[in-house]
Amino acid sequence: MQTSFSGAPNKTYRKNRFFDGLRSTMLIKVPKDLSCDELNVVLGLGSPAVAASASGTVAVTAPRDLIIRDLVVHAPAGCVVTAITVSGDAVLLGSPVPVEAFGPGNQSRPQFDLPVQGGTQIQINYTNGATAGNFGSSFNID
Asked: Exposure check for the chain: N or C terminus, fewer CB within 10 A?
């Protein structure tokens, strides 16, 4: 059985075999033309080495339309995020934010839930603390 959703682009959908197997009255459908790109849930920005007290930038171009959920950063203590921009528009306003706010162990990381078109430039600026290390960062995406 194929169908389309009102208000959505005219695409055909196929039943999800997992949910269909549950014999539930709820019918979950996924796009028939689902690609591997749409299964990705992490958008990496790299992990460059950064010297003590140095500043740097990591950037990525969105490979497809996506939603930025939250930022995860693994960096030396004392490192701060000074700017987050999407297509040149500031997402982070005000004072620099310590990387611990975006740390992998912080379950209350800020949620952006920001729709981004494919081809959009996403950039994070940071300043390292007194310890050299790597600034590893990624966004959780949908």
From this structure: N
CATH number of 56's domain: 2.60.120
- Reported as type and span, the H/E element at residue 79 is none
| pLDDT tens string 88-101 | 999 998 999 999 99
pLDDT at residue number 40: 72
Asked if 18 and 49 sit in the same domain, the reply is: no
Q: Which two tokens stand for residue 54?
A: 């140095």
Tokens (6 digits) for 15: 């039943």
Quote the domain boundaries for residue 1: 1-34
Residue 139, helix vs strand vs coil: strand
